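dumping this here before i forget
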Amino acid sequence: MLGSCWHPEEEKIVFQSQQSNRIVQVIIIVFVCLLFWVFLNALITPVTKQPSTLVGRELYLPKQLQIDMKEITQSNKKVALYFFASWCSTCVSEYKTLLDDKSDTLWVGVLYYDHLNDAKKAFPDLDKRFALIFEDLDGEFALDWGVKGTPEILLFKDSKLLERSYRLEHS
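structure:
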């Protein structure tokens, strides 16, 4: 019986190899689960409000509008600059939520790279929602406020920027 010799050292090596493989498998499974959790968390958590270095900045509107800012800022209402466009599908889809807003916020519409005539076609009853609407055809006003896309909302109180958000919060 030459071939049936039992060698404890060989069994120990095989056992250690299997144990190492299991450890590697557990590490891979944990890593994949962690990666999946991060991805799922990113999908579930809406990014609506962002911290901004502009918080506290004084509200202003373009000079060509010739608007008395005292009328707007002394109303004791929050003022929302709403950057939107008729070509923005998200803006169009959340417009009903904007119309349903019952707060006493004073809404100022900024048409980002868009014309008022196009906006009136895409958004019925613009005059009912906005106290003022103006075109930012070259995007300079939006750029000065750090806006990179639409929709974006800058909320002011007492002429100071409180927060910025990227979507309306549905209530």
